[in-house]
Amino acid sequence: MNTLVKAAVVLAAASMLLSGGWAWLNPAGFAHFTRWPDHVHFLHDAGVFQIGIGVMLLCALRWRDAPALVLAGFVVTNTFHAFNHAIDLSLGGRSSDPWMLLTLSAVGLAGWLARIRRLRVAAGARPEGGRHR
After folding, report:
1. What is the pTM of this model?
2. How would DSSP label each residue in 53-93?
3. pLDDT per position in the chain (133 positions), as tens?
4. Is 97 exposed, middle or buried (0-12, 13-18, 19+ CB in 10 A)?
């Protein structure tokens, strides 16, 4: 991967992580700055989805395997999403929502672990000097 592509990925990831973190940690300040409605749960969700994009961008610098990459991003994003539903329960939704989302995260994590295990086995079977990225 050339330097320009790496720089673009890092810049994009930083923008997603910073704006997503801001929306998640300080939804009122983010809403005021962006002139969005101050809807805490919406901004919490928007923040974690941006954080998830940032995580996937950074993972893409290391991993070339699409299933491993998207499963990692899904697990991070969906787990934070479940946390949002738990902390924002007083704003609406069902008490089962966080648990349903965490169940999906567990399925995603199982898939990610199985994929990583498969990649390690495949990398171990390669001739010496072979790299799996």
Report:
1. 0.82
2. HHHHHHHHHH---HHHHHHHHHHHHHHHHHHHHHHTGGGSS
3. 799 999 999 999 999 999 999 999 999 999 999 999 999 999 999 999 999 999 999 999 988 899 999 999 999 999 999 999 999 999 888 999 999 999 999 999 999 999 999 988 888 865 554 455 5
4. middle
At which residue do the structure tokens 């989302």 appear?
A: 101
Q: Which residues of 63-91 are buried (b: 16+ CB within 10 A; e: fewer)?
A: bebeebbbbbbbbbbbbbbbbbbeebeee
Q: Which residue has the tokens 């939804």?
A: 27
Cα(57)–Cα(46) distance, rounded to whole angstroms?
Answer: 17
